[in-house]
């Protein structure tokens, strides 16, 4: 089961307004999803329901296994306090409380207010020296960073951000977005409403709403290429480990989390998935996978032999460069290293056109 599962979600306001019409999608833990669409398309309504501030008229919404529509008012309050961190466009800070007190207030609803934790959270968003300032003494960007600190204080499973940079200038926008990037790296699940395509591209996937209907779910090209290469690598590793060319998708941990991307890879004719969910490479997919593996293992060799990088750090470092090596540089690297046949861990390096016939 995905972390967020929305099925046929409908929300009516009175008889005439349908803010959401039979919307379905799912979000995996750790994903960053951008919710886009014109004004009035239902974005905020969706966020409010995901965060337990509003309830569905019809359909089901599950977050971390909890069915939002079935929770009592008390359980909803607990759900919000324990599981959700909200960041809104309007900062919603209490004007007569300091930054520190505003953060502690969020904590107070969760458990005992702990001043040191609150001030540490403010430190994390770069406001360690502003904790005793009132909102009116802070810039817009600083106020929004207080909101991010407040959203994080209870270690929420899910961060919901509704146009978090809508009221910020460019500099502050960049500051706040870099915070979200860090949160994403740290493994938080983020659902963020934005109408800025630049910000939308920072997410892994985009959901678009039009008149309350879901019109598009997509993966972004730049991210997609890297993701596809990583998934091709995963399939390659599995084939290497099992010595088989066809294996069940259930044996691949990455499969469940990247179903949509795997379907895209089928469309792109990189892999084949049969009706029993057995995955195999197409010739083209195998070639591309072999190339990534080759770049990865040649990089490992280079780091190991030339820079004496310890063995346990090779993989992580090679992962960073393998996506960016051109064919030409890869060939030069292979020649320079005298066409090595294995990586430092002993796994075979797929030969390139430059390699002597083995
Ligand atoms: P967005 O955030 O995409 O701009 P909203 O989710 O705020 O859109 O609103 C979607 C539609 O639902 C709009 O037509 C809006 O007027 C209506 N709506 C939202 N909240 C309410 C409400 N509490 N009562 C009545 N209508 C509402
Ligand atoms: Mg809105």
CATH superfamily of the largest domain: P-loop containing nucleotide triphosphate hydrolases
Choose one word for the global shape: globular
Heterogens: adenosine-5'-diphosphate, magnesium ion
Distance between the termini: 46 Å
- The level-1 CATH class of the largest domain: Alpha Beta
Average pLDDT across residues? 89
In N-to-C order, the SSE pattern is EEEHEEHEHHHEHEHEEHEHHEEHHH
Features:
single chain, 358 residues, alpha/beta, Rossmann fold, 2 domains, 6-stranded mixed beta sheet, 4-stranded antiparallel beta sheet, globular, binds adenosine-5'-diphosphate, binds magnesium ion
Write the layout of secondary structure elements.
Elements: E1 4-13, E2 17-27, E3 32-36, H1 43-50, E4 58-63, E5 66-67, H2 73-83, E6 84-87, H3 99-110, H4 115-124, H5 140-152, E7 158-162, H6 170-185, E8 189-193, H7 197-202, E9 205-210, E10 213-219, H8 221-242, E11 247-248, H9 253-257, H10 259-267, E12 271-273, E13 278-281, H11 283-307, H12 311-321, H13 327-336
The structure holds adenosine-5'-diphosphate and magnesium ion.
Magnesium ion binds at residues 43-44, 162.
Q: Could you give a short description of this structure?
A:
With 358 residues, this protein is an alpha/beta fold. Helix content is 44%, strand content 20%.
């Amino acid at each position: 089961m995905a972390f967020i599962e929305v099925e046929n979600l409908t929300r009516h306001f009175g008889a005439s307004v349908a803010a959401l019409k039979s919307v379905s999608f799912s979000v995996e833990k750790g994903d960053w999803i951008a919710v886009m669409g014109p004004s009035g398309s239902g974005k905020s309504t969706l966020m409010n329901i995901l965060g337990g501030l509003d309830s569905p008229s019809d359909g089901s919404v599950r977050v971390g296994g909890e069915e939002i529509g079935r929770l009592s008012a008390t359980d909803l309050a607990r759900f919000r306090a324990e599981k959700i961190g909200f960041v809104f466009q309007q900062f919603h800070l209490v004007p007569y409380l300091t930054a520190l007190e505003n953060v502690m207030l969020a904590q107070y609803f969760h458990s005992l207010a702990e001043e040191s934790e609150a001030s540490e959270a403010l430190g994390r968003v770069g406001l360690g020296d502003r904790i005793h300032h009132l909102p009116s003494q802070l810039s817009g960007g600083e106020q929004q960073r207080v909101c991010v600190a407040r959203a994080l204080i209870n270690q929420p499973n899910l961060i919901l951000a509704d146009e978090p940079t809508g009221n910020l200038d460019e500099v502050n926008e960049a500051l706040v977005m870099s915070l979200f990037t860090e949160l994403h790296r740290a493994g938080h699940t983020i659902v963020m409403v934005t109408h800025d395509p630049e910000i939308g591209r920072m997410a892994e996937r985009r959901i678009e709403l039009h008149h309350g209907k879901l019109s598009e779910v997509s993966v972004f090209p730049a991210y997609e290429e890297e993701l596809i290469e990583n998934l091709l690598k995963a399939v390659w590793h599995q084939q290497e480990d099992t010595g088989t060319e066809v294996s069940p998708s259930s044996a691949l941990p990455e499969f469940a989390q990247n179903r949509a991307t795997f379907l895209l890879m089928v469309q792109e004719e990189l892999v084949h998935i049969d009706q029993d969910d057995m995955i195999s490479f197409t010739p083209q997919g195998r070639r591309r996978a072999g190339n990534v593996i080759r770049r990865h293992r040649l990089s490992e060799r280079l780091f190991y032999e030339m820079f004496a990088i310890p063995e346990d750090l090779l993989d992580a470092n090679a992962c960073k460069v393998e996506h960016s090596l051109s064919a030409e540089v890869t060939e030069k690297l292979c020649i320079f290293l005298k066409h090595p046949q294995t990586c430092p861990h002993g796994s075979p390096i797929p030969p390139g056109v430059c390699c002597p016939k083995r």
